[in-house]
From TrEMBL:
Keywords: Cell outer membrane, Membrane, Receptor, TonB box, Transmembrane, Transmembrane beta strand, Transport. Residues 367-824 form the TonB-dependent receptor-like beta-barrel domain. This is TonB-dependent receptor. It comes from Lusitaniella coriacea LEGE 07157. Residues 160-266 form the TonB-dependent receptor plug domain. One of its GO terms (molecular function) is siderophore uptake transmembrane transporter activity. Belongs to the TonB-dependent receptor family. Pfam families: AMIN (PF11741), Plug (PF07715), TonB_dep_Rec_b-barrel (PF00593). It comes from the Bacteria. InterPro entries: AMIN_dom, Beta-barrel_TonB, Beta-barrel_TonB_sf, Plug_dom, Plug_dom_sf, TonB-dep_rcpt-like. GO terms for biological process: siderophore transmembrane transport. Residues 34-113 form the AMIN domain. One of its GO terms (cellular component) is cell outer membrane. It is a multi-pass membrane protein.
Length: 861
């Protein structure tokens, strides 16, 4: 038999055969013998099984909430029936059906909140789809992989679960929501409702010390730039409009990593960032009105525009907002004569430019200017002081007043920030900054106080005293600071890193009091300056801080943080005159006020911190913290001096305050509920307690005390999402404190309610009533406090009060409509700070606003 040697098939013949086989497979109708639905991380996979080697064709489309696939070259041949159906196979999917039609197989996947997205995946037999389920439209859903990042607590980006101390983050969405129920459009009232440990909303004033953090002053930052001045201006939270804020981080308790007097904690205001893609514009308009007085003088208006874009390596942002607020009325319909929030208008401009120099290097320039112009048409009636008993302030019309120096506050913040993510293995951040505050206060008429001191009617004071005596004054505060900070985050080994760096700040402060002509003031409604006094020392303050902080992940469950900061503060104080009101006997005797010689002081110290977090489980952790704070007292303490022989360089009035703080807490974060409980105690040997005098002649005056001081308390936050559409939660704050004033043999006595706020409870319930329509009802309860009054510290008691707000948000296309009612139940009450005003300050016992409604609409395009 001859040998058979087959010849290779030519390439052209092989190609033709392949095409013929493929065409034959596509031409025939193929059976689908099985359908499987398997859950996946992003949704689920849908597999239609067919004989090996076949190819199924699918044409896909969407209709409303349904995703549809038509497979024409297939027939359904299932062993258990003529069709397939799965009800609620995964969350977010209502059903999946596979049925036989005249033209082939049809697959329908119906989503509960929208059609799922699908991608075709290769399969050895049949056809497979990966379907991604969209997030349900519940109350602010948070993907499991999303981590809440904070930067303030440790000066670097950290997961809040790894921070060994109490931190509250207020998001952009929360700020927008709460702005509706904030008729004064300021930050202090927003955070007063949301942050445990912080005093309740002030509501009737733009600047006040009464809103402390854990009973001590807080350090206020805007993008890391310190806003506080050494003198107690207390307007730092009235330095920026809420519309330009991305988020607010509040760290409760002193922080050794920061200087500048953060003995109560830090409130870091972080401004908006540019969009990452394309160009985006935002337009916002709104109005506010007192429901009880729907008149022209009870309305307010808001207009805002934002432009954000990204082009190549450059991104930019411009945000401009304008607010106009006329008068406001209490729940009884009476006009409230709170001068610095009546008939005022604010203007805010934020501008940012960022450049990605390389993938690892970035440069950002930022500038924010905020102007709050005050031009009230009413003021507080001094005759209320002639009425026996304690009453509320009454408004009298003053018409159009002429000013040499218009009352207003102008705050500017400019910074240049450079970052390098990998500089020899370390991350470097450097910043240069400039900050200034120029504040012309509303004129203060002190004739009511003098009348009480002399025992005569208010109307008689002008006849008894010469016009050169400063019975009417207008203060001016001109403060600016510049400086820089440099920090480097260096890996030590795989599970530890060292943050180290240096901060430097120079602050210049010029404060004067303008003596106003009482004749021109009364007869011509004119604020004419006769002379200026310098009763608050002007100064230059230099501070430099060196710090190092180690972060060590000892294990997956246990973390340690610790470090130190060396702080050096030097102050050069100019000559000044003594306070005219602490030396009014000299004024009445027509004797000149003595001059106090200035001088220089230099103080330094080292503060430490050590904290730990232990994760008992993935959801539950325990944290503990010890931290110290360091602060030089306000130079306003020198107002207590009344003799020209005073030696600034020998006094202990300005001895720094060092605070030791201890904190212990637990936090839990489960899928449907979250909570944090923390307790704290802190002590300082040289506290800075403020009290209100109870003496007959000085009633209402604030007195400064350097004495041992303790603060302690408990804070709680809790949130529960019983369903995807409901949210319930709130906060609770209880804090107390005492001090041991010199010359008092009683030992420790309660701190004033100016320093320690009463119990604060907040509750909320919110619901997505319909898709894209959310509603929220929230309660603020402030308890009473009389400990300091009963022990002779305060001249007042704090009475409890409660208020309820309603907030509603409707998403309409690209826009959002917000409707809010502040003080929904129209409750008549005095905020805490108003209740502290007694004696000659009775003219500042301002009730809060009555029921106030606001409408705001914003749209992005």
């Amino acid at each position: 038999m001859a040998n058979w040697n087959p010849q290779p098939i030519p390439i052209w013949a092989s190609a033709i055969a392949s095409v013929l086989v493929t065409q034959s497979v596509y031409a025939q109708t193929l059976p689908v013998t099985d359908v499987r639905v398997n859950p996946s991380e992003s949704g689920f996979e849908l597999i239609l099984e067919a004989p090996p080697g076949v190819v199924l064709e699918a044409i896909t489309s969407t209709e409303g909430n349904r995703w549809i696939a038509d497979i024409e070259n297939a027939t359904l041949e299932l062993p258990d029936g003529e069709s397939f159906r799965a009800e609620n196979p995964v969350e977010g999917i209502e059903f999946v059906t596979v049925t036989q039609g005249e033209d082939g197989i049809q697959v329908i996947v119906s989503g509960t909140d929208g059609a799922p997205n699908a991608t075709l995946r290769e399969s050895l037999s049949g056809i497979a789809f990966d379907l991604v389920v969209e997030e349900p439209l519940g109350l602010d859903p948070i993907p499991e992989e999303e981590i809440e990042i904070v930067v303030t607590a440790t000066r670097t980006e950290e997961d809040v679960a790894d921070v060994p101390r109490s931190v509250t983050t207020i998001t952009r969405e929360e700020i927008e929501e709460q702005t509706g129920a904030n008729s004064q459009n300021n930050i202090s009232d927003i955070i007063g409702k949301l942050v445990p440990g912080l005093g309740p909303p002030v509501q009737v004033n733009r600047r006040v010390r009464g809103q402390n953090l854990r009973g001590r002053p807080a350090l206020i930052l805007i993008d890391g730039v310190v806003q506080n001045t050494n003198i107690t201006l207390n307007s730092q939270l009235n330095a920026i409009d809420p519309s330009v804020i991305e988020r607010i981080e509040v760290v409760r308790g002193p922080i050794a990593a920061y200087g500048g007097g953060a003995t109560g904690g830090i409130i870091n205001i972080i401004t908006r960032k540019p969009t990452t893609e394309g160009i985006e514009s935002t337009v916002t308009v709104g109005t506010t009105a007192d429901v009880g007085s729907l008149q022209g003088d009870g309305f307010g208006f808001h207009v805002g525009y934002g432009l954000s874009g990204n082009q190549g390596i450059v991104d930019y942002l411009i945000n401009l907002s304008w607010d106009k607020r006329n008068g406001f009325f209490d729940a009884e319909g009476d006009r409230v004569p709170a001068e610095d929030i009546s008939n005022n208008q604010t203007l805010n401009l934020l501008a940012k430019v960022g450049i990605d120099i390389t993938e690892e290097q970035r440069l950002v320039a930022s500038y924010n200017i905020y102007q709050d112009r005050i031009d009230p048409d009413v003021e507080s009636d001094l005759s209320v002081l002639d009425t026996p008993g304690l009453g509320n302030a009454r408004a009298i019309e003053i018409g159009n007043r002429e000013y040499e120096n218009q009352p207003q506050q102008i705050n500017q913040v400019a910074s240049l920030t450079y970052s390098h993510d990998n500089l020899w293995g370390s991350k470097l951040d450097a910043q240069l900054f400039y900050q200034s505050t120029d504040f012309d206060l509303f004129p203060q008429d002190s004739r009511g106080f003098i009348a009480r001191s002399l025992g005569v009617p208010v109307q008689a004071v002008s006849r008894l005293l010469p016009p050169t005596i400063p019975v009417i004054r207008q203060g001016n505060i001109d403060s600016d600071k510049w400086g820089g900070r440099l920090q480097v985050d260096t890996p030590v080994f795989e599970s530890a890193s060292l943050l180290w760096g240096i901060d430097y700040t120079r602050e210049n402060n010029n404060t004067v009091e303008r003596v106003i002509d009482p004749v021109a003031f009364d007869r011509r409604n004119e604020v004419r300056v006769l002379q200026t006094l310098t009763s608050v020392p002007n100064f230059q303050l230099d501070s430099i801080g060196l710090f190092a902080q180690l972060q060590w992940d000892v294990s997956e469950q246990w973390r340690l943080d610790g470090g130190f900061r060396y702080e050096n503060i030097s102050v050069d104080v100019q000559d000044y005159t003594v306070s005219p009101f602490l030396n009014r006997n000299l004024l009445l005797a027509r004797q000149p006020l003595p001059t106090i010689r200035g001088g220089s002081i230099n103080e330094s110290d080292v503060v430490f911190n050590l904290g730990t977090v232990y994760k008992v489980t993935e959801e539950f952790s325990v944290f503990a913290n010890f931290a110290q704070g360091f602060a030089i007292p306000s130079l306003q303490f020198l107002n207590n001096v009344n003799t020209s022989t005073f030696n600034l360089e020998a006094t202990d009035l300005l001895e720094p305050e060092k605070v030791n703080n201890y904190e212990l807490g637990v936090r839990g974060d489960w899928e449907n509920w979250q909570f944090t409980i923390a307790g704290f105690y802190n002590h300082s040997d040289r506290g800075q307690a403020i009290t209100i005098s109870r003496s007959a002649t000085n009633a209402g005056f604030r007195e400064f005390n350097r004495a041992p001081q303790n603060n302690y308390g408990i804070e709680l936050t809790a949130d529960w999402q019983p369903t995807e559409l409901w949210g319930i939660g709130g906060t609770f704050t209880w804090n107390e404190g005492n001090f041991d004033p010199p010359g008092d043999n009683r030992g420790f006595i309660p701190l004033s309610s100016l320093e320690v706020q009463p119990i604060k409870l907040t509750l909320y319930v919110e619901n997505e009533t319909l898709p894209n329509w959310n509603n929220r009802l929230q309660l603020l309860y402030v308890g009473g406090r009389d400990r300091a009054f009963e022990d002779g510290v305060d001249a007042f008691k704090i009475e409890s009060y409660a208020t309820v707000d309603f907030l509603s948000t409707v998403n309409i296309g690209q826009g959002k409509l917000q409707i809010a009612v502040e003080n929904l139940l129209d409750n008549q009450y005095l905020p805490v700070i108003s209740q502290t005003n007694v004696g000659f300050l009775e003219i500042r016992r301002f009730p809060a606003s009555g029921r106030t409604i606001s409408l705001r609409y914003s749209i992005k395009f």
